Fold these 2 entries.
Entry 1:
Amino acid sequence: MAKKFRVGILGATGTVGQRFCQLLENHPQFEITALAASDRSAGKTFVEACAWKLPGGMPENVKDIVVQPIEPPLDCDLVFSSLPSSVARETEEAFARAGYPVISNSSSFRMDADIPLLIAEINPDHIALIETQRVKRGFTKGFIVTNPNCAVVSFAPPLAALHRKFGVESVVVTTLQAISGAGYPGVPSLDITDNVVPYIAGEEPKVETEAQKILGKLTDGAIEKADFSVSAQCFRVHVIDGHTASVRVDLRETATLEDVIDAMKSFPSLDLHSSPKQFIQVLEEPSRPQPRLDRDAGNGMSITVGRLFPDNIFDYRFVSLSHNTVRGAAGSAVLNAELLASKNMI
Amino acid sequence: MAKKFRVGILGATGTVGQRFCQLLENHPQFEITALAASDRSAGKTFVEACAWKLPGGMPENVKDIVVQPIEPPLDCDLVFSSLPSSVARETEEAFARAGYPVISNSSSFRMDADIPLLIAEINPDHIALIETQRVKRGFTKGFIVTNPNCAVVSFAPPLAALHRKFGVESVVVTTLQAISGAGYPGVPSLDITDNVVPYIAGEEPKVETEAQKILGKLTDGAIEKADFSVSAQCFRVHVIDGHTASVRVDLRETATLEDVIDAMKSFPSLDLHSSPKQFIQVLEEPSRPQPRLDRDAGNGMSITVGRLFPDNIFDYRFVSLSHNTVRGAAGSAVLNAELLASKNMI
Amino acid sequence: MAKKFRVGILGATGTVGQRFCQLLENHPQFEITALAASDRSAGKTFVEACAWKLPGGMPENVKDIVVQPIEPPLDCDLVFSSLPSSVARETEEAFARAGYPVISNSSSFRMDADIPLLIAEINPDHIALIETQRVKRGFTKGFIVTNPNCAVVSFAPPLAALHRKFGVESVVVTTLQAISGAGYPGVPSLDITDNVVPYIAGEEPKVETEAQKILGKLTDGAIEKADFSVSAQCFRVHVIDGHTASVRVDLRETATLEDVIDAMKSFPSLDLHSSPKQFIQVLEEPSRPQPRLDRDAGNGMSITVGRLFPDNIFDYRFVSLSHNTVRGAAGSAVLNAELLASKNMI
Amino acid sequence: MAKKFRVGILGATGTVGQRFCQLLENHPQFEITALAASDRSAGKTFVEACAWKLPGGMPENVKDIVVQPIEPPLDCDLVFSSLPSSVARETEEAFARAGYPVISNSSSFRMDADIPLLIAEINPDHIALIETQRVKRGFTKGFIVTNPNCAVVSFAPPLAALHRKFGVESVVVTTLQAISGAGYPGVPSLDITDNVVPYIAGEEPKVETEAQKILGKLTDGAIEKADFSVSAQCFRVHVIDGHTASVRVDLRETATLEDVIDAMKSFPSLDLHSSPKQFIQVLEEPSRPQPRLDRDAGNGMSITVGRLFPDNIFDYRFVSLSHNTVRGAAGSAVLNAELLASKNMI
């Protein structure tokens, strides 16, 4: 049995931090050895510091770890970060500079030209940006890799399947996002019970820009962004986990409905520990995908797509869904780390 | 004080039927004198027959009315109908033929060429179709007038404001619809708690066709439908009342954001009992409109619009909201009846 | 038309403060002339300072009032207070000392021996404590009057009806409390969606002690508490407004079910502006009372009772319900002010 | 590897039937070989007949089984039944008479004197009633064993722990029950959103009688019921899974709080496949147990208890919780079958 990588989690007590702990509980390659959180938590054991909010309870292996301040050094080989963007920029760079691979779920660096914005199945070649990054920022051993905004992840995979085969020209997406995306305490119950909120601070610009980078082409150590427009309207709805996207798309090349379905179904998965068997599942039932029934598909790592039809104005329309704190956050980061490990980058 | 019109309600025990009773409780022009419902209810008093589901309780004036079978004659001057579409077609025609003005919320006749599909503020001139209708169907005193699908009402008013001023070329709408739209028992709680359902049977085709008729031009006793395309995706969300629409629109003429806001705000209201002071309210707060906070604007008869911005792909985007069982159903029908009364049509 | 009392609201931007504004919008006796809130809000107009969360929107008459710091003097004849208990004690006493009648919804003074804990219909004679209070605290014109905890109000009225007629010996109450009781932001949506929380900080002791004072006897300027025991378990449930209480009660004297129903129904209401016609409504339908259907009974000022049966262990059991931010908070305070005004105390 | 028992499920398409399929998917002792449901479903494959409502999707091994009518013979060694009580009595007896062990979750036979009402950890000796039953009803190979009402299961285990050690004299229980307990379509969303319903048809009498039988003593082939009174008020709350019970209890012998906690914690679990490691978990956090966080404890087979305190009127009070469709229904039945298998009864 191989030696496991020792992992630190930055922002361990938050919603995504807890999901990291849960996903890494019995992971064959990673073992949590350090937990870092805000000053208020530092010095306490994790079980004292963290108000655990996930069903199933806190994993035994992290309960007694003493929470540390969020600064290097930490006793680990790499760090997963789910820091709020207000502190992520400075802190993550400090960890990278101190030699740690930083696998980040934060938004701070996502759109920086030298930072990979990875969905492991879609643009693994963007890892090459790490070299550019090291040169530019003077990192030696460390680096920063990010995963996309959780709402982007809910539709980027089917979009990638279409872009790869037929070219995407424009995308209109309306998202129905889960409350867990706002962390804890997050959305007040008085705001979302018997209600919908048509606004998530800062979300629409992220959704309108990240996909073009993810689907961009790596040339000479830089990403040339994909040339399509995105229009995004983002809503908070009363769902615990699972972001739903209502999507219309225009393609550059003609494609039949069968072609489109096939492009999605045949999009290859990876052979990594957290990879789902089927990356994109296309459901035929007229009322699917639904967050409560489908968010856990592929252990929360599959994207489910349904209601795929020709559209009156665009070429096609569909509904896609992903688990926002698994595939849309902690799970994507873990998969990115597995990808990097498979390429001996950590 | 003028004599009141005597009103019958077809489908009185249902969700919309109850809303009719509530809206007509103290109405200055209408007085409920007959309630008709399915055979199971007929013969009982309304208080025995109806499981009242609206806050505030059953109005006193209807409690002791004995429910009758849904067939003419009824002791009234006109009927409001909220029959399920399976029975509406035959029954409503029978009432019209028997001489009753039928103000219907059902979908059965909406798209028939000789039936007005009315939003009182938008296309009151379509009432002229009643003449066509009488000739074609051999009605003498009676007639049928309908109001649109509740989801259509959530965005048709701002669309009408834009169409009148700048011409609409295409519309993409994604609806987030309330559970009350499905009636009672309607949506099982196991289906909508912690969930979103991306499917409402028969809804998307209605949303994609009704607006063009409403905004159509009356020429020689017939409607020429407005020439724009609609793409609709319809979702059920966990909201009790209030349909939200996420809208993108392309216009035929150039319009500044200020023009667009002004077109909506200045769309005239009517001077009828149920008319709101402001037909279309444009809200500036970034997180509005919200169903729980805004559905009751103008006593549930105003449309609230927010998040009105230029769009990356279309000319503009916005979010609009209406109360689906008031403005989107019973309230619209009552307003239509008030309009007809003001024109001495009943 | 009589001159209106000029009213200040302490804690105006909170959930209960907003309810005060709503209830006083068209009040015949009171007119809001001052709004006070935390330093963060002071100096702004109310419309700028307050994130309004009640359906129907902010009343026009308060929008442009400039929010002031929470300290005397304020430009008004009396103050309503919904301050958090952390600051209420000191601040309310300061207002009373400065000559203002303080009608408080806060918990700070409720159990002080010289402070009336009023439900206007139940113990109006306790107003006499104001004299005791003035002597003890050296108030001249000012005084403090409180209303009970919102959970207590959900069952104290039927309890009072029974106590007055038959004597209460012991009460077991389990409360199912609405999220609005925790204010805003209050209960995180992640805590209450698909969930019940069996704990509300500090609540059970309040529920176990306040009723005995309310039902106590005034003798020689002091309250002799009623001699019964209360056992309370308090739950937060996923309801916006409306606290439900599951109650068992042992009586000192024998009473038939008919006696018990009659005692509740015949408990007299008052003849004040905010008094409901029927203080305690006894519902016969097996599935009532329900928060969504019954909280607005009597404009939110009635208590609804149902499922009243003999019990296997206690004499009787029943379910009672009140609107927690109306009858359980702002509405009770307004009614107390009306009572005091009717007795020329303000 | 031992040969597995071949299992049939009566009422397979319902909420509990689906849970049976899920729990038996990879069971080491049982294998589903027959699915029976109403005439509407019979003849279709399970995947066609059943609207699957549990997260995670329908197990592969049942998808292609052709649903049969609910009558013997079925191709299996024993049957699990979750039939509605209207048909359970006749049907289950027919299966038992035809030689099948019937492990039933239905209420029909629970209180019959010769039918074991089993919680495997509590009264396994009641299995001896099967002999009485065979004699009385003329069964040869077959028999009927039942598990309790789901609400009873939420508090009977801690009650059993106390009864065994100290004797229980009386119990007051108020239940907060999940919507899944009503099956599908079950509770309309309009009834439970922003609401609590204080009534579940037929529930309170079950809760007030079943515990005494479960905790009764087997003497001469008959159960002498435990001699305590139960008072039950049952509420439906907006929770998907997990029944919460608010309990007060009087004991016959004196017990310290420590004694009480110890009695619960030390109540032995069994060594069967579905047994949780800890039958009764006593939680110390003040806000636990909560359905969303604790219903899955012990894979949904543990009972969690919290807020255990001395009470003002009774000796002790506490809150207990169980997963109503696992421990409260299908899981209990499976555990009963494992118990019977371990005793070579099937």
Entry 2:
Amino acid sequence: MSLIYLLDLCAVAICAITSTLEARHRDLDLFGVLVIAVISGIGGGTLRDILLGRLPVYWIHDPVYVVVGLLAGTLTFFLGRKLALPKNFFLIPDAIGLALFTVIGTSIALKLGAPWLIAALMGVITGVFGGVLRDILCNQLPLIFRTDIYATASLAGALLFIALDAYALNQAAAMLCAMSTIVVIRLAAIHWHLQLPRLK
Amino acid sequence: MSLIYLLDLCAVAICAITSTLEARHRDLDLFGVLVIAVISGIGGGTLRDILLGRLPVYWIHDPVYVVVGLLAGTLTFFLGRKLALPKNFFLIPDAIGLALFTVIGTSIALKLGAPWLIAALMGVITGVFGGVLRDILCNQLPLIFRTDIYATASLAGALLFIALDAYALNQAAAMLCAMSTIVVIRLAAIHWHLQLPRLK
Amino acid sequence: MSLIYLLDLCAVAICAITSTLEARHRDLDLFGVLVIAVISGIGGGTLRDILLGRLPVYWIHDPVYVVVGLLAGTLTFFLGRKLALPKNFFLIPDAIGLALFTVIGTSIALKLGAPWLIAALMGVITGVFGGVLRDILCNQLPLIFRTDIYATASLAGALLFIALDAYALNQAAAMLCAMSTIVVIRLAAIHWHLQLPRLK
């Protein structure tokens, strides 16, 4: 459980970093950037906890999550001006973060007795809602509604995790399989520009 | 109660269908359309449950709501390209959905002991907030803030329901009266382009 | 406590008035304006209550908050057309409202046992989130992310309140000191156009 906690914090940091890098193209001051960095990192788990009634939400009594988001955002804010990172430097960490958030969210919902469809949904919400909130606050059409397969990868992983956890493996193995699947689908989608069908 | 449950599901389906039809003018993929379809259908009741502290929210342990939203959205997504429905095909179902959501939301809040003004507000939130969320996610100024009388019809019906329920009728009759009022006001507003006063 | 309650209601009224004055430049009808007025006034405290699990949220069983927001919004809507108020008429009341919301929010979170960083965050959320919601509903990039020091003043006051409350003063004195600090920082920031650093 301690490893998952550490990975969870890493996923929060990755979200905060990528959001800060994206926010630099917008007319935001340091405070605005930090708010958006923290919200990207903890927004998904927060909505999951509210919907499931796990209140107070998880970061109220564990401020480490907020601290990690603030630190990652502040460092990126000041270093990001000088550093010229390669464009796709964060694609793999970002995919791992999505995978981790998805599996954690699904597993929490299952433990609370949610039906499988709802548990998978909670996994997807945990994985993608931070980014949706970031885009809404930045006054943009949320990226995940129009981009390469992203939430779809999260959904596939959540469903796989539920199936493996129920019928076959111990939880740790089910988590690893599901997370690998999410990362692979996500990277394949980026590489071959896989898209879901769209209207027009 | 079983009839109300069925009607409730119908209202979710109607919301999902109209949202999918509207989303087709936007640059969304299938996943984005389905998310918006489901959120339109269950968003109002979800906010109501959170504000009232009825957690987990109502669809966590009854996935039928989400399933109905997904099915209605998917069918509309694929059939909607071929079908050329008359422009106002959904006006009456939509008005009935608004009426139903309003009365259900008001009645739930009353049962929890909320004061009448707050109960009416919860009815309006249940009725219109799904559409507000849809518009925010689509990065639009919410329609109900600028269109023909919509939330106003919902509010009038909620207040009528509270009065009838308190002073006169049995609940089923009060529900029917209130719902008819909402549908009539809504259709009258559309037909005669009734508008609330506005600044400038 | 009764004085704080009265001041709290005043802060709700100020939020509703300033939001109505801002909304007049948008294509909103009376209903839209009132919704935005009420949400600006009670949105911050509502999010705080949800995150902390204080449900139902505070205005469910005390409709006075909603009534005050509605009255202030309606009066401003109809008088606002005739009255030509000086442009910065509301700057001082607005700063007092921010100060009051911040201190109340922080104090509630402390009482529930939240760590100091989280308590300060709850103060800031209570102080600024109503305005963020207003801007999102109006489809604008939230003002506080790009304007003169606003949330920063709230944060400084929240932290000062926590320190004074813990180490030195009785709560009433700590509240007054913290609130004065917020008002002074806010007015100084407006007067000298103080800004946080920004990217680019």
